[in-house]
Amino acid sequence: MRPIRTERLILRNWEERDRDLFHRINSDERVMEFFPFRRDRATADAMMDEFRSWIAEDGYGFAAAEIAETGECIGFIGLLETEDIDTLPAGTIEIGWRLAPEFWGKGYVTEAAQAWLAYGFETLGLNEIVSFAVAENHRSIAVMKRLGMRADPSANFDHPAVPDSHPHLKRHVLYRLPREGWQARQR
Q1: d(CA 127, CA 162)
Q2: pLDDT at 70 over 90
Q3: The CA-based dihedral angle spanning residues 109, 111, 112, 118, taken in that order and rounded to the nearest 10 degrees
Q4: Whether 115 contacts 11, CB under 8 Å
Q5: CA distances (Å), 31 to each of 14, 39, 52, 66, in order?
Q6: What kind and span of H or E run contains 76?
Q7: 102: helix, coil or strand?
Q8: Are 93 and 81 in contact (CB under 8 A)?
Q9: 169: which of 37, 93, 136, 139 lies 20 to 30 Å off by Cα?
Q10: Complete DSSP assignment for 124-147
């Protein structure tokens, strides 16, 4: 992956120095509030290796977000092909993010996501990018709205990876951004 530079961030592939942060964001109670599990270090390391491999192979993925001024990794933001959501067509690309809590509320996700949307529509030639979250995840839904994504209530779904032991986390809302909608916002 060729790094993407925004005003304050560098979006890049994962590096060995990112392992502590990657584990922290995947085990932190606040970050993982809307997920039914927390990852231990070994599982987080394996997931980071998987992300790194996908990015190297595809040129995009859930990439590390680094503050350009300090070199500090703050989490991930990126595009990824959805795999386990059977209500979405094969090849659907989602935009997603996860940041350490001390970086919330600073506009980093919106800034980086705008760069990823441009990459998705201009470089990858996508016709649509989606995002989804637990229905009660108002912070992520607010970002989706800031990006110009629109809710598609007819496509809301129960996430198949959420076990029945966590019914309050099953229902997910789906937001869509077609290429035309993104282009209109660029004018």
Answers
A1: 28
A2: yes
A3: 130
A4: yes
A5: 19, 12, 21, 18
A6: strand 73-81
A7: helix
A8: yes
A9: 93
A10: S--SEEEEEEETT-HHHHHHHHHT
CA–CA gap between residue 151 and residue 134 (Å, rounded):
13
Where do runs of H (alpha helix) occur along the chain? 19-25, 41-58, 108-118, 138-146, 179-186
Distance from the Cα of residue 142 to its chain's centroid:
14
Output Rg (C-alpha) for the chain, integer angstroms.
16
Structural tokens at position 129:
């990018």
Mean pLDDT of 50-76: 97
How far, in Å, CA of 155 to CA of 88, rounded?
8
For 129-141, the pLDDT digits (tens) are 999 999 999 999 9
Q: How far apart are CA 135 and CA 187, in angstroms?
A: 31
Task: Write down the residue that tokens 């592939």 correspond to.
Answer: 13
Query: Which pLDDT band holds residue 8 (cuts at 50, 70, 90)?
Result: very high
User: Are residues 98 and 47 in contact, defined by beta-carbon separation less than 8 angstroms?
Assistant: no
pLDDT at 54: 95
- With tokens 């680094």, the residue in question is 66
